[in-house]
Amino acid sequence: MTLLNSTFAYSPPQDSQYIWEKFDPEIDKRIAFRKVVLNQDLPLIHNWMNQPHVIPFWNLALDLEAMQKHLEKALADNHQTLYIGCLDGVPMSYWEAYWVTGDIVAKAYEFHPEDRGIHLLIGEPSFLGKGYALPLLRAMTEFLFQHSATEKVIAEPDIRNSKMIHVFTRCGFELQREIELPDKHAALMFCDRQSF
């Protein structure tokens, strides 16, 4: 997959709420990302973080008030941007796109100042097991590579999360090594622009 030959990517209209959207013919759906809006998205994200398939890997099964404080802090953090991922306009996933500079993972490897990273979850149980994770990840990775100085996108999924490690691998991310982070034992993975 190359950015230059991506015939399905397009910029949203000026009045669109989405910052990036594209039609993916493999799943016959429109993938779109919009920035998290606290008052609008708090109940949604709170619900997703308390789903059984999310709890072991995110450790954010908080009550609503604590989740609001967590999101307020995350939204105020200028090294990351929070997104809601949608399929055909339906919100179903949560994303954190971050600059490695300023993140704890910067201690794990010799990073370039323009390196980006991704955290993600599919929150809605009805969207699980349907092959959506890979097209969504490809779309977000492509979006991050729109920043022309970014040559590498990284991920550090929990080492226990073999399904997501497999999805990252299929998207072009390569396992570098296992690393210890404050909240998990992780697989450090890189996706270089050229290989993507």
TrEMBL record:
GO molecular function: acyltransferase activity
Keyword Acyltransferase in record: yes
Keyword Transferase in record: yes
Every N-acetyltransferase domain range: 31-194
Protein name: Lysine N-acyltransferase MbtK
Organism: Floridaenema aerugineum BLCC-F46
Superkingdom, natural source: Bacteria
InterPro entries the UniProt entry points to: Acyl_CoA_acyltransferase, Acyltransferase_MbtK/IucB-like, GNAT_dom
UniProt keyword terms in alphabetical order: Acyltransferase, Antibiotic resistance, Transferase
Signal peptide segment: none
PANTHER family: LYSINE N-ACYLTRANSFERASE C17G9.06C-RELATED (PTHR31438:SF1)
Pfam families with a match to the protein in the record: Acetyltransf_8 (PF13523)
Associated pathway: Siderophore biosynthesis
